[in-house]
Amino acid sequence: MSQAKTSSVETASSRAALRRQWSEAALTTSRRGFIERQRRQGGDAVRIGVFSSTTWRPIAPFLEGELLIEGLVPALRFFEYGALDAEIAGGGDLFDAAILAADDLESYGGLFRARSPFPEEKSQEALQGILGRVDRLLERAPQVLVLLPPAPPRLPFPLDWTPDGEALSGRILRFSRELLSALSARPGVVAIDGEAALADLGRTAARDRRLWEIGRVPYTEAGFLALARALAPPLLLKAGRGIKAVVVDLDNTLWGGLAGEGGIPGVDLGEGYPGSAFIEMQEELRIWKESGLLLAVASKNNRADALAVLDGHPRMLLSSRDFDHLEIGWHSKAESVGRIIETFRISSGAVLFIDDNAREREEVERAFPEIRILDLPGDPMGYVEALRRIPWPLFAGSTEEDGRRGDLQRQERERRSAAGAAASREDYLRSLDIEVSVSIDDPADVARIAQLHQKTNQFNLDPVRYGEPEIAAAMASPLRSVIGLRYRDRFGDAGLIGAAVVDCEGETPRVETFLLSCRIIGLGVEEVLLGEIVRAAPEGATAIRLPYRPTEKNEPARKFLESLTGVEPAVPGVVIPIERLAQIPAWIRLYPAPAASPREMETLHAS
Amino acid sequence: MRPELRSMLTSVFDACPDSIDERSSPDTIPAWDSLGHLQLVAALESHYEVRFNLREIQSMDSVTNIEAVLRARGK
Known about the structure:
The complex is a heterodimer of chains A (about 600) and B (about 80). With about 600 residues, chain A is α/β, with parallel strands linked by helices. Chain A contains 23 helices and 18 strands. Helices cover about 55% and strands about 0% of the residues of chain B. In chain B, α1 packs antiparallel against α2. The longest helix of chain B is centred in the middle third of the chain and has 15 residues. The model of chain B has no long low-confidence stretch (mean pLDDT about 90). Chains A and B meet through α2 and α9 of A and α1, α2 and α3 of B.
């Protein structure tokens, strides 16, 4: 636990930032301050009654935190021990939801005791006891969450093997199965498997014998936090919070690699890692789709390239027909997401955005503070697990109408915020802390620059495929220059991602090649490369000549030339007066070129 | 009194820092009830990276006694 930092935390700018703050504060002394601040923000009130035969009050801050970060303001009331049945029998206040913690081993009448015959009668009694309480609670609350019985104690073999031939764990399972089927027949009841919720934490971290001895507290703080996270989704769904649509990126999210670079053969999908990880991702999304969720694509790609893989790759489990909307092009992700939200007529809070690129996740989060962002790990191996563990419920199947409430008003608010998003684009770019460095004729760059020439299709004005000998020759020539461009921002160091070969002979320097990795298009980095070409030009030069050869894939390059000249670029190139060339954007800083490092060579594949 | 102990008591019990001194105990801090005590113990264990036994937990019923247990643990 670190020092209390209640006063230093600023108000979160987005739902995702709020969740991050809470995750950091939950198990520290600063959680009280966090909860109080969130309470002051207000939200929809929910009354929750918690019924238990052990001490459950320690769950309060955790359940409050989990609900407050989703805009619900819970009023929790606890009925423990004797108060549990007194309150249930007394029939007092109404609740929006009731939680019944049926997790007390001692209330199961010997069911958990080894080496005795199955206590048929007592087990029926325990079962009817739980169901009777559930039925009384259903009269008081439209939603009743029942925490299922805990795992049996561990005993050395064969002490857990009872004389009637049934293992202790087996009889608990039998009991739980009977309980589950009785609960599932009751509308409004949700069964919560507490053991599953605590499993990740582990038995020893979730329970603390000392707490039990001191105050019959069944779980540690971390244990209660895990239970609160398991209890929150049904409460959120009931309150109209949940995911209705999933917006997913394509390259390195639905498949490995870039559709625009290698086409179907260049895409990782299928048996063997990493292709298998993307198959799992698609399988999971297909299940979600079949459960009634809307699916959409937001991808920076040439439409034809993306569709070629979506519909043509033999191992694809999803095809373009599985998506309710496709946004494939070169506009910003925020624009794409905005159009999808508008098309679906849902609030951004009901959208889960999935993208491997942390920069684009943040751009979307800024434009839509309410949107749900899946924090994908760096390694595709963890993708499907991240997807399955989202903390939000899904509006799947028949519950869809629950979520309509308040949507239209929220949409209106969000459209306004999306309009504001464009104006704050420069703020966003500034926040990236972009730094670029330029190297000229550096022999250490030959291999990487040649490789960029081979691989870059999209932002490539004229895909002349110079190899290493040509690049080395251009570097050696006194009249030609080879410019390399490295990029980094606060998300990481992308290494050498841009290059140009320039022939400076004559009054108008002729750019032979000009290319950038598609990962950093639209951040103003292309202006830096242009600026360097101008600087490399001989004194007295008034214009530069940029090449242009359209291909199936270099639409981003065409758009760039069009933005410089205002007209459709001509083949084989355009001449642009130097004074028309933009300055280096204010949000980009230059830093001195580093010596080539082995790390950079490792990132070669990623371009 | 250790400054970090004061800050822990302040945030766990939502108390005014000025109101906390060596004599502070469940009698002087309203939020220091049995549950509050367990929260305080969790905060102390996490901060000092110790695990108290039951007797220690039960004896830490005032700031003076908490300091005594911490000293005995070499903290």
